[in-house]
Design a protein that fits this description.
Layout lengths: L12 H7 L3 E5 L5 E4 L1 H12 L4 H4 L7 H10 L3 E4 L4 E9 L5 E7 L6 H31 L3 E5 L5 E4 L1 H7 L3 H4 L10 H13 L5 E9 L5 E13 L2 E10 L1 H58 L4 H18 L16 H11 L4 H8 L3 H14 L10 H8 L6
Antiparallel strand pairs: 1-2, 1-5, 3-4, 4-5, 6-7, 6-10, 8-9, 9-10
Length: 403
C-alpha cells in the first residue's frame, strides 16, 4: 500500500475504519495511541495498546516520536508476532487535524524478516555512502580555486562551478547551455576545438587562449582539457584560469628589464667616458713630465751655482703644484713658503688695510710689519720690482690666502 497523507474525518465513517484488512492505529500529536480498529486490537490487545506510544508498542528501535518518524521515513519497519503470528510492514502518515495514522499491512516480501532487515541495512548504508560521496564531490567541485566547465558532445556547457561563472562574469543560469565558442575569441575557439577533437581519455591538454567576458571584453586565460566517458557519451572537463595578473607581472618584469638594460648602457657609457678622461689625463701628465719636469731636473743637476739651482727648484715646485688634482689659479707654490705671520699680513693687505692699520690690528711695531712686507716680496720674487705693488700682485693671483 503506497504511503500517503490520510485524513480520518466523519466522511470516512466508522465502517471503513473497521472494514480495512490492515491494522489501523490512531495517535494524538504526541504519538500516543488513542484508537485501534478490531484487527489491531485482536493482534496487539486493546487494553495494552491504547494509551501507549506507538513506537514502544510496536517495538521500533527508537526512543522518541522524532526518532520513530525518521525511521519510518527512511525505511519500512516490520512488526512480527502477536496473536495472528504474521509479519506486518509499518507505515505512518500524519493526520490533517493533528496526530498520526499508523498502518500495519501484511508483508508480502519473500525474504525472511531477518534477511529483509539485513538487506535494508545494507541498502541504507550504500545510500548513505553514495550521498556522502556526492556531497564531497559537490564540495570539491564548487570549492576548487579554478573554474571548471563540463561540456557535452554538442559542445554546450552542462555544468560549471561558481569560480567559472566569476571568471567569465556570467550568471550560473546563463552559462548553462552556452556553446563553448561563446567563451573565446575566434582564434581561441580554434585552439579549444582542436583540443576537444584530438584529446583521448587519460590525457590532459592545455593551451593559452583569449577568453571573453559576458560583455565581450577579452582577457588572457589558460584552458586545460580532459575527457571522460559517461554511459557511452563523451564529456569534456575544461579547467579555466584567468592569467591577467600573471601577464601583468610579466609585462612589468619586461619593462623593468628594459629600464635596467638602459641604465646599464648609460652606466657603461659613463664608465667609458671616465676611462677616456683618465687616459687623456695620464697622457697629458706623461707629456708634461717628459716635456717640462725631466729637462728641469737635468738643468738642476748641471746648474753652475746654488742660486741658479734654487731658482730651478722653485720653478719645479710651482710646476708640480700645477699638476696636482684640482690645481688652478688658486695654487701658488711661492705662497706656501710664507710663514703664518706673513700669511696674516697678506690677508690684511688683500683686505685693503694700510701698514698702520695692520700694526694696530696685529699689535706689532711699524718696523716689524715693514720687515714682514720685505720678506714677503722677496719670497714672492718681487724684490727689485718697485713698480709692482704687493696688494696688486696678491689680487692678480686670486689666491685665497689662509690665516
Amino acid at each position: 500500500m503506497e504511503l500517503r497523507r490520510a485524513s480520518l474525518d466523519a466522511s470516512l465513517g466508522q465502517e471503513l475504519f473497521e472494514a480495512t484488512s490492515d491494522l489501523v492505529l490512531v495517535t494524538d500529536p504526541g504519538g500516543i495511541i488513542v484508537q485501534a480498529n478490531r484487527r489491531a486490537a485482536l493482534l496487539l490487545g486493546d487494553a495494552a495498546t491504547v494509551g501507549a506510544a506507538f513506537w514502544v508498542r510496536l517495538g521500533l528501535a527508537c526512543d522518541t516520536l522524532e526518532g520513530a518518524l525518521r525511521l519510518c521515513s527512511a525505511q519500512v519497519p516490520r512488526f512480527s508476532g502477536g496473536a495472528l503470528q504474521a509479519d506486518f510492514d509499518i507505515r505512518v502518515a500524519p493526520l490533517d487535524g493533528g496526530g498520526f495514522l499508523v498502518l500495519l499491512a501484511a508483508s508480502s516480501s519473500p525474504f525472511p524478516p531477518r534477511a529483509e532487515r539485513e538487506r535494508q541495512v545494507k541498502d541504507r548504508a550504500q545510500a548513505l555512502a553514495l550521498a556522502r560521496s556526492q556531497k564531497m564531490l559537490h564540495t570539491v567541485f564548487q570549492g576548487v580555486g579554478k573554474g571548471i566547465i563540463l561540456v557535452d558532445e554538442d559542445l554546450e556547457v552542462i555544468g560549471s562551478n561558481q569560480k567559472a561563472c566569476e571568471t567569465f562574469g556570467i550568471h550560473p543560469e546563463n552559462i548553462q547551455g552556452a556553446h563553448i565558442r561563446s567563451l573565446c575569441d575566434p582564434r581561441g575557439q580554434e585552439t579549444v576545438l582542436r583540443m576537444l577533437d584530438t584529446i583521448i581519455e587519460n590525457q590532459v591538454l592545455s593551451d593559452e587562449v583569449t577568453a571573453l567576458y559576458f560583455d565581450k571584453s577579452s582577457f588572457p586565460a589558460v584552458f586545460t582539457v580532459s575527457l571522460i566517458t559517461v554511459e557511452g557519451s563523451r564529456l569534456w572537463i575544461i579547467i579555466t584560469e584567468d592569467i591577467s595578473g600573471q601577464k601583468e607581472m610579466e609585462r612589468q618584469l619586461k619593462s623593468e628589464k628594459v629600464l635596467t638594460e638602459e641604465a646599464n648602457i648609460a652606466l657603461r657609457n659613463v664608465l667609458k667616458n671616465i676611462q677616456l678622461e683618465q687616459e687623456e689625463h695620464a697622457a697629458k701628465l706623461s707629456r708634461r713630465i717628459t716635456r717640462d719636469l725631466l729637462p728641469i731636473l737635468h738643468k738642476i743637476r748641471s746648474a753652475p751655482s746654488a742660486e741658479v739651482r734654487n731658482g730651478y727648484i722653485d720653478f719645479l715646485g710651482e710646476l708640480l703644484a700645477s699638476l696636482a688634482p684640482g690645481a688652478g689659479p688658486q695654487m701658488d707654490f711661492a705662497l706656501h713658503r710664507l710663514s703664518k705671520t706673513e700669511m696674516k699680513v697678506c690677508n690684511f693687505i688683500l683686505a685693503g688695510f694700510s701698514t698702520k692699520e695692520i700694526c694696530a690690528t696685529m699689535n706689532l711695531a711699524f718696523d716689524t710689519v715693514q720687515t714682514h712686507r720685505k720678506n714677503i716680496r722677496r719670497k714672492l720674487g718681487l724684490s727689485g720690482s718697485a713698480g709692482i705693488s704687493l696688494h696688486g700682485y696678491l689680487n692678480s693671483r686670486k689666491t685665497a690666502v689662509g690665516a
